[in-house]
Amino acid sequence: MAELFRLKVVTPDRIFYDGDVSMVELTTTEGDIGVYANHIPATAIVAPGLLKIHGEDGQVQKAALMSGFIEILQRQVTVMAEVAEWPEDIDVKRAEEARIRAERRLKDRYPGTDVMRAELALKRAIVRLETKAK
Amino acid sequence: MATMRDIKRRRDSIQSTEQITKAMKLVATVKLQKSRTKAESAKPYFDLMYDTMSSIISRSGQIRHRYLQAGGSPKKAVIAITSNRGLAGGYNNNIVKLVNGSLPAEDTVVYAIGRKGRDGLALRGFSIGGDYSEVINDPLYQDAAELTEVLLEAFTRGEIGEIYLAFTSFKNTVVHIPTLLKLLPVELPEREGKADGAEPKARAIMDYEPDDETVLDAIVPKYMSSLIYGALLESLASENGARMTAMDSATSNAEEMIEDLSLQYNRARQGAITQELTEIVAGANAIGG
């Protein structure tokens, strides 16, 4: 059994998750990472992606995580997220629509389209759909 | 002495004022409960953001970063959070006084959230850089993020050297403290003795992914928007608290005045009756005599 550490996921509206876990996986701007206890202290920027929380008895909870950052200390990991959603919070229809809209914007490339914003919106929609699907 | 009719008119007018203040108090009470729950549920994020930020900065040793150093410009920007409506006691005036007392008017640009603060500060010679008064009606995190973006751009361009936040901190229903907070350059006083047995903040060197500059570039805006968002929610709760208290005292003042006037009215009426009686008796005596 892996050693446990304290995980906190906080958003501006609520404390999203607070508890002891054995491992957490998420996406940073540098790629996907998995964190166990006794990680060296680190700070990274969170990119939109799937958050997987491995609890003490091995069960896995999934959530969608949008922008934010993560502070890793040896026994405590804090994720400050601007948006975090459990699968049951996600509206598939809305996410699907957002995906189509973003794809269209990227394809048409009208002058004045904020490409980065459209890409981010697309990414967010995909993450939401992925979280819901699994 | 005022006539009966004068007193009655005055009393009626105070009575209708009382009804208004009473209704406003009830509305403020309901709104206070809502805004208070909202402010309280945002508090953990707010506090954690602050703690995380101080731990990052205390661990990172000698980082030289543009957000951690004063900009080249002597200009200051202040975000002044007040309300759009008055009748909230000293709530708006306290912020105006605080800003006016701590920052020089000629070198300060005001980003107003709330019409009352905007007007009050404009009157005292501050220039208004932006007006986001609609935001205070229903603050969203998005609003704070947008304002942060505008301010950081101005900071990066060197138009402003320091950014302040003036808001009313909500302690409880009756205690609200007007507060001026320096947002940029980030300056965090060392927090003494953490209460909740969190990990002792050993001075291990923090590892930044991908590198410290990029991380601070990403975190500082989030830190700022979360502080602004928290301040918006707290100010809103304070506004409703202040309005509730103000309306409560207005209502009890009105009640007191009504009581006084009722007494005067009754006295005047009794006086009139006595006088009439005296006249009748005197008249009867004159005829009979």
Topology of helices and strands:
The complex is a heterodimer of chains A (134) and B (289).
Chain A: E1 5-10, E2 15-28, E3 31-35, E4 42-46, E5 49-55, E6 60-65, E7 68-72, E8 76-81, E9 84-85, H1 92-108, H2 115-133
Parallel strand pairs in A: 1-8
Antiparallel strand pairs in A: 1-2, 2-3, 2-5, 4-7, 5-6, 6-9, 7-8
Helix pairs in contact in A: 1-2
Chain B: H1 4-59, E1 76-81, H2 91-102, E2 108-113, H3 115-123, E3 127-131, H4 141-156, E4 162-170, E5 176-184, E6 207-209, H5 212-288
Parallel strand pairs in B: 1-2, 1-4, 2-3
Antiparallel strand pairs in B: 4-5
Helix pairs in contact in B: 1-5, 2-3, 4-5
Give the gist of this structure.
The complex is a heterodimer of chains A (134) and B (289). Chain A is α+β, with helices and mostly antiparallel strands. Chain A has helices at residues 92-108, 115-133; strands at 5-10, 15-28, 31-35, 42-46, 49-55, 60-65, 68-72, 76-81, 84-85.
Describe the largest sheet of chain B.
5 strands, mixed
Q: Look up the CATH topology of chain B.
A: Pyruvate Kinase, Chain: A, domain 1
Cα Rg of chain A? 16 Å
Beta-strand percentage range of chain A: 35-45%
The assigned CATH architecture of chain B is 3-Layer(aba) Sandwich
Q: Tell me the domain tally of chain B.
A: 1
Measured by residues with Cβ under 8 Å of the partner chain's Cβ, the largest interface is: A-B, 27 and 28 residues
Number of domains of chain A: 2
Order of strands in the sheet with most strands of chain B: 3-2-1-4-5
CATH class category of the largest domain in chain A: Mainly Beta
Low-confidence stretches of chain A: none
**Regarding quaternary structure, how should these chains be classified?**
heterodimer
Task: Describe the overall structure.
The complex is a heterodimer of chains A (134) and B (289). Chain A has two helices and nine strands, in the order E-E-E-E-E-E-E-E-E-H-H. Chain A is α+β, with helices and mostly antiparallel strands and 134 residues long. Chain A has two domains: 5-85, Sandwich (ATP Synthase, domain 1); 90-133, Single alpha-helices involved in coiled-coils or other helix-helix interfaces (Up-down Bundle), CATH 1.20.5. In chain A, strands 1, 2, 3, 4, 5, 6, 7, 8 and 9 form a nine-stranded mixed β-sheet that branches. In chain A, strand 2 and strand 3 (31-35) form a beta hairpin. In chain A, helix 1 runs antiparallel to helix 2. Chain A starts with a strand and ends with a helix. The model of chain A has no long low-confidence stretch (mean pLDDT 84). Chain B is α/β, with parallel strands linked by helices. Chain B has one domain: Pyruvate Kinase, Chain: A, domain 1 (3-Layer(aba) Sandwich). Chain B is built from five helices and six strands, in the order αβαβαβαβββα. Chain B has a five-stranded mixed β-sheet with strand order 3-2-1-4-5. In chain B, strand 1, helix 2 and strand 2 (108-113) form a beta-alpha-beta unit. The chains are: A alpha+beta (134), B alpha/beta (289). Strand 4 of chain A pairs parallel with strand 6 (207-209) of chain B.
